Amino acid sequence: MAVTGVVPIRTNGIKTPDDEKLDTHEVGMIRSKFSDALRSRTIRIVTRRGPEFYVHEELLCRESEKFNRQLRGRFKEAQTGEILDCDECPELLSMFFEYLYRESSLHDEKICHTYEIRVLARLYCLAERLCAKSFQDAVFWKFSQLFYGKYSVQHFEVFQTLLTLHAELPERKGGDFPMRQILLWWAASRLGHLKKLPEFGDMLQNHYPSLGCQLLMLAGDGPSSPKPSFSSVKPKPHFEKDIKFIKDAAEDHQPEL
Question: Gene3D superfamilies, per this entry (predicted)?
C-alpha cells in the first residue's frame, strides 16, 4: 500500500511556473528555500509494516542527520533514492513528514487531550533516533505546554510515558534529556500516588529496576521538591520568509473590482 507523506502546497490560487510562463525576474523571486526543496528528488521510504512515503530529499536532509547520511553518503540509498525496510512506526513518521511540509499541531499550543503526552514522548524518541534536533525541540515545546500549563495530567499517563522514555532513549553523557528529567521529577515527587497503580510495583521490580532506583533517589521532599526548569521556544513555521512572500504575492495578484 502506497501512502504519500507529502502535503499538497496551497498557493491561494497563484499560478506556478508550471501553469504559465513567467519572466526570469518573477521566477527568481518565487525560487525560494521551500520551492527549491520541492525541486529535489523524491525519496521513497518503505516501512516494515507496509506503508510507503514519498518525501523530498532536501527536506529530509535539512531536518535529519540520519537521513542526510543515508542519502548523501556512500550508501546504496544515495544511489537508489529509496530507503527500504524502515523499522520506524508509520504513524510517527507521518507526523514527522507533516512537520516538514507545513505548520503541524506541534506549532499550536492547544492540547486536545492529556494522552497526547505519550504521543509526544514517542515523537521525542523518534527525533533522537533520526538526529532531528529542530523537530525534537518543537516536540519538547509542545510537551512543555502540556506539563507546565493549565492541564491536569493523569498519574497513569505520566507513568506510561516515563516507561516509554526509559526504554527508548539512550543514556546520555553530560546530563539527561530534558523531557525525561521532568517526568522523573514528577514521578518521584508523587510516589505515593503512583504506588496505588496496580502495575506500578510489578513494572519497576520485574521489568525496570534501574528506573525504580532512580525514582527512590529523587524522591526527596515529595511535591515540594523544586521542579526542573528548561527553556523552550515556540517553533517558527518552516520557511517563514517563503510563506510571507506567498501571502504578499497573493495580495498583489488580487483582481481589481
Answer: Potassium Channel Kv1.1, Chain A
